[in-house]
Amino acid sequence: MKCVFEADQLGEAYIIKHLLERASLHPIIHGEYLQGGVGEIAPSGLLKIVVAIDEYDEAKSIIQAWDEAEWDEDAWRHEAQ
């Protein structure tokens, strides 16, 4: 297994995990339960997304494409016609 992404928050980790799962990859979140034991201050570097070594390159390119995508704030809105 190889780390493909380090998340700052659990929500971000799940977004990346589901993004990779949609591409039929098999990501695992490491450190998901460690945040609760640290206290109120949000620690960094605990949440890591890991994939199999043979999935690493594909996962990295998917994450990079997602990171570089432009956000359309109005994309979710459906105007009544």
Summarize, please.
The protein has helices spanning 10-22, 56-68; strands at residues 2-7, 28-30, 47-51. The chain is of the alpha+beta class and 81 residues long.
Q: Can you tell me about this structure?
A:
With 81 residues, the chain is α+β, with helices and mostly antiparallel strands. The protein has a domain at 12-43. The chain is 32% helix and 17% strand. It contains 2 helices and 3 strands, in the order βαββα. The chain has helices at 10-22, 56-68; strands at 2-7, 28-30, 47-51. A 3-stranded antiparallel β-sheet has the order 1-3-2, covered by helices on one side. The longest helix has 13 residues, at 10-22.
Cα Rg: 15 Å
Strand content bin:
15-25%
Mean of the pLDDT scores? 85
Low-confidence stretches: none
The helix tally amounts to 2
Sequence of strands across the biggest β-sheet? 1-3-2
Annotation, overall tally of beta strands: 3
The shape, in one word, is globular
From N to C, what is the helix and strand string?
EHEEH
What is the share of helical residues? 25-40%
Give the CA-CA distance, first to last residue: 50 Å
Question: Structural class, judged by helices and strands?
Answer: alpha+beta
Biggest sheet layout: 3 strands, antiparallel
Strand and helix map with partners:
Elements: E1 2-7, H1 10-22, E2 28-30, E3 47-51, H2 56-68
Antiparallel strand pairs: 1-3, 2-3
Notable characteristics:
81 residues, alpha+beta, 32% helix, globular
